TrEMBL record:
Superkingdom assignment: Bacteria
Name this polypeptide is given: Glycosyltransferase RgtA/B/C/D-like domain-containing protein
Membrane-spanning parts: 121-139, 146-165, 171-189, 196-212, 218-233, 254-274, 325-343, 352-374, 386-402, 409-428
Keywords: Membrane, Transmembrane, Transmembrane helix
Organism: Nocardioides gansuensis
Amino acid sequence: MVVGLLVASMVFSARHVSEHASMSPIDEFVYSDYYAKVLDHGVVRQGEKTGLFARRTMSCDGIRVAGPPPNQKACGQRNAGGEIYPLGGLTSADIYTPAYFLITRVAAQPFVWAGVGFLDAGRLVGGLWLAAAVILLYVALRRRGVAPAVAGGSCLVLAGSLPAYWAHTYISTDATALLAGAAMFLLAMEARRSRTLPLVLLVVAAGVFTLFKVQNLAAVAAAAIYLVLLAAYDARSAGSFAARLRAWLLDRRLLAAVSAVVVGVACQAAWLAVRAALAVGEVADHGVGLPFEPRYLFTDAFVFLPNVAAGALAPAVAGPYGDSVYVLTVMVIIGGGVGLLLARSSEAYDRLLALAGLLGCLLAGPALSLAIVVTTGQYVSLPPRYGMSLVPWLVGCFALLVDGRTRTAQVATVAFGALVWSLSLLLAEA
């Protein structure tokens, strides 16, 4: 099954990479610049201009949907004027550490040696990031005792989702999100019995995945909420209220939950300090910042569900089958989260898992908004893709909800997953 998921992920990525005629509107222009520079420069700095590779690619290919169309005149020039490029030719990828770009660049080299174009080689690595995510989710489910067919079918839904399409067929830092979600899901379940190694690894992973992309803190938040709920649930048998409170406060899972959030935030703060020290100019202005108003925190609580299943843009942007893939994925993530929470047959620990995922979806939006306001002084309307790391968590809840003891359930789950994945191969640049 693991080999099958690897093949499914790579086929999915290769199918769409071969069809992409233009750059992704989700910042691939600046991501490809970082990808091209990382081995030579290490870090892209605030205020730095994009390089020749990214500029030529954008000029020759254009940017999908609403971006600049191909510019044949600029395509033939060595370095056209910055006014034709997004952000006046400045990079905005300086907000990221080089971690994702360095891994992607190194992993792309074998594809380059095999004759794949430089940009497409980096895009194909998205299939490896996707494979790592679905395989890790599969391992998490199998360790929990989920039947192989149910675990595999559920992972096929993830491998064929719209978040996978936008994040894993272009060069995108969002490629780390599904992996972060799957990893935190696995570690949270391994830590449910207060075992030391999973708790330590969960805290370490919180820092690592935040350094890949700060939005991955959404998955860290879900894992932290789960550990807090577990500690409170197990403390209920300690006796008096004071004894229960003491048992909860002294629970190692509570300590790990707090540590994970603190470590994740601290790692991001450290990177922002490094970024500021390396700056060579002003921050690239996207022109989307707004004055902060408290009411935004309420609306941001509902930005991820169910829209996170759409990935980056409206489902119809991915062609006539985009809406079908979206609806089927929504059925899984909403049905998984809500269904597992309410199912009488579910174990208490599993219901808390679903509750943590749903609370993560509700709380991550306002938390990310506040973080952006604190670090930039402006409010930015959150796109649903910022919650992408929560998708594996909810897909995992769906798999736990299915009664894998029956042959019918196993066949139905595999068939459903195969349907979503097959339809995803029909997605296209509409």
